[in-house]
Write a structure and sequence with these properties.
The structure is a single chain. The chain contains nine helices and seven strands; from the N terminus they run ααααβααββαββααββ. It has 315 residues and is an alpha+beta fold. Helix 5 packs across helix 7 and helix 7 (209-225) runs antiparallel to helix 9. The longest helix is centred in the N-terminal third of the chain and has 48 residues, at 77-124. It starts with a helix and ends with a strand.
Length: 315
């Protein structure tokens, strides 16, 4: 259009070229400014906001949230990124909260046996105590020190397993392992007069026996702990194709649905009324071992009717 206009008035070709170049530069400037505005408002500004939020999270502020930028309800890559960022911060906040609760519980549980040991050690120094009293004091000190030792051992074991990736596999009888584990807990079954129902097939697996010992001991100990005297515990083992399936079911107090969702999380302890007996570590150890050996564990439960843990191990 410009060229035709200038051609009609017989303008110099140099002036025509300059005018057209100026027009093109003006149009390019408008396009550049438009693109810059879109980039700034659509990407650069949100990215700067995300960077600022990330710095706050790095400083320990887990209340940070970023609001979506689109008003039409659609999700582009940036909206998905913002959504994932908010979810990450929410999970970090949950983990931090659980960690703080865990540390508070551990600190309390460490103080309790230490206070017992200190008190009864002081009583042992008194003169004139009878032999029977002395024996009772010594037994109490030994029990308190044993609980403290178990606590420290479980914390160290969980830390070790968190950093472990290589396992020592060998072929062995899973049925025999379960029977030996049940026998080792026979005294606890008798103490609570628990009826034990066993249905174990002869199953051979290739796995790490020492690690799976942790699983069976923890699951059976928990079943005993949360089953009322006179209750019943089932231990089942059978094989489906190449998968060994172990089921441990009890008639105990059961687990709430909300607790079931996080029962295997590290630092999580759902039932604070049992802090004297457990430290919220056992099932974290179980889950880590199952992950290491490439298995799966599921839990189903109902309040007041008991819980069922099912472990699936692939050969």
């Amino acid at each position: 259009m410009l060229y035709n206009k200038f051609l009609n008035v017989k303008t110099s070709p140099w002036i025509i070229a300059l005018d057209i170049s100026g027009y093109i530069l003006f149009v390019c400037l408008l396009i550049s400014l438009t693109i810059h505005y879109i980039m700034h408002t659509g990407y650069l500004k949100p990215l700067a906001e995300i960077g600022q939020a990330a710095r706050k999270v790095a400083e320990g502020d887990f209340t940070v949230r970023i609001h979506g930028k689109r008003k039409d309800g659609l999700k582009d890559e940036l909206e998905v990124f913002i959504e994932d960022f908010n979810k990450m911060v929410e999970e970090l906040a949950t983990i931090e909260s659980l960690k703080e609760d865990f540390i508070a519980n551990i600190s309390h549980e460490i103080k309790t046996p230490l206070a017992v040991i200190q008190s009864y050690a002081t009583l042992l120094r008194k003169e004139g105590i009878s032999k029977e009293e002395k024996e009772n004091y010594i037994q109490t000190v030994l029990e308190a020190s044993s609980k403290l030792s178990d606590l420290v051992s479980n914390v160290l074991r969980l830390t070790k397993l968190e950093n472990q990736e290589i396992i020592q596999k060998s072929s062995y009888s899973l049925a025999e392992q379960l029977r030996l584990c049940i026998l080792s807990l026979d005294e606890k079954f008798e103490e609570k007069n628990i009826e034990l129902e066993i249905d174990i097939d002869e199953v051979m697996i290739v796995s790490d026996a020492s690690l799976l010992d942790i699983v069976w001991n923890n699951l059976l100990t928990n079943a005993i702990k949360f089953t009322e005297p006179g209750g019943r515990i089932k231990v089942l083992l059978h094989q489906e194709n190449e998968t060994a399936i172990v089921t441990i079911a009890d008639t105990g107090c059961g687990i709430d649905d909300n607790i079931c969702k996080r029962i295997f999380d590290r630092f999580y302890q759902g039932d604070t009324s049992h802090l004297v007996e457990g430290y919220g570590l056992g099932l974290s150890l179980v889950k880590r071992v199952i992950d290491l050996v490439g298995g799966r564990i599921l839990v189903t439960s109902e309040n007041g009717k008991g819980s069922t843990f099912t472990v699936r191990l692939n050969n």
